[in-house]
Design goal:
The protein is mostly helical. It has one domain (24-76, 84-148). It is built from seven helices and no strands. It has helices spanning 22-26, 28-48, 57-74, 77-80, 86-111, 115-151, 154-157. Helix 2 (28-48) packs antiparallel against helix 3 and helix 3 (57-74) runs antiparallel to helix 5 (86-111). It is globular. The termini are far apart. 27% of the residues are buried.
């Protein structure tokens, strides 16, 4: 019986096929989505360990959404599925996440006195800043896209 590796066939890809490409990890969007995922997971863990456990659902949902978008952009699903307007969905996710994190961070820091709630609040303020940076950058891309779309309209060509 012949060994499959010596037969000239490449070994089946393992877990390395699930890792995102290195160029995406070095991009600004990849780093922002990775930071959002990590911060959301840390905040989720802090809220589980705190007296403010009622706030744990928001970081969990934001963690899952950021993780989904991280792998969607890394595997280029945004180029394959044109029916979804990806920049708009990402913009709305970032705006709502920044607002929600800011609100629950203020509540966690001011209302609860345990250390885990304070830590969740501090990480929540950091996540608010990261999400605000992401929605600012996404908003600029969205405006550029809309300006390109309006210049291609028939009204823009009537003056020529």
């Amino acid at each position: 019986m012949e060994d499959p590796e010596s037969a000239g066939t490449a070994p089946a890809p393992g877990l390395s096929s699930l890792l995102p490409p290195r160029e995406f990890l070095r991009s600004r969007k990849g780093q922002l989505l990775l930071a959002e995922s990590v911060l959301s997971f840390i905040i989720f863990i802090c809220y589980i360990a705190s007296l403010a456990a009622s706030f744990m659902m928001a970081p969990l949902l934001e963690f899952l959404l950021a993780l989904f978008l991280f792998f969607a952009y890394a595997s280029r699903l945004n180029e394959k599925f044109k029916g979804v307007h990806w920049p708009l969905a990402d913009f709305l996710r970032c705006v709502t996440a920044a607002i929600i994190y800011f609100a629950i961070s203020i509540a966690a820091v001011s209302k609860y006195s345990d250390g885990a709630s304070k830590a969740a609040g501090v990480f929540g303020f950091a996540a608010t800043i990261v999400f605000a940076i992401d929605f600012y950058i996404t908003f600029n891309h969205l405006v550029t896209f809309l300006k390109q779309g309006s210049s291609d309209s028939p009204e823009g060509h009537k003056t020529e």
